[in-house]
Amino acid sequence: MKNLDNDDLDKLPKLKSSKEWLEPQPLSFMEALAKEDVNAAIKSILYRENYVIKELDKYLQRHDFLNVRRREMLYKRWVDHVANPLQKIIAEKVRSHKKIKKRRQEELDTFLKYVNKKGSTFIEHYDPKDYDPFYMNKEDLNFLKVTTPLFRDPLKKAQYDKDDEKRTLLQCETGT
């Protein structure tokens, strides 16, 4: 644009004739306009691309953070509801070895008294009235064995509920 003086403000710009409009513009002028348009388009595309990349990075970082947080919460829930209770049950059973040891000692004492009374014994030849080595095994199948109660994992609660529902439906259908 030209710098306009006060004198130029009073005059209207000269109108182009139709001939001037129809004359082809110089090639360098057209190339300059094309380059400016291309450069502007490239800048616009690069700006949008950078914006999309930044937003995608933010989204991926947030997604990763939420996944890590979800895993941490799931692990904490598992520790609180599964690992710690199971650890307590195991520790309690390990501490109860004294009871098992005492029962074994009582069984051994009973056996030794019987052997001292009879002189010699064989597993095939014993009198159940005097001494039955399998008495407690017949009465209690878990005699001298450490057992833990059935443990229902709270993280699998949905699966347990679904299994219970299927079992109930099957019982209703079969009538048992």
Automatic annotation (TrEMBL):
Domain of life: Eukaryota
PANTHER family the record matches: FAMILY WITH SEQUENCE SIMILARITY 228 MEMBER A (PTHR28584), PROTEIN FAM228B (PTHR28584:SF3)
Protein family per UniProt: Belongs to the FAM228 family.
Name under which the protein is recorded: Family with sequence similarity 228 member B
Natural source organism: Molossus molossus
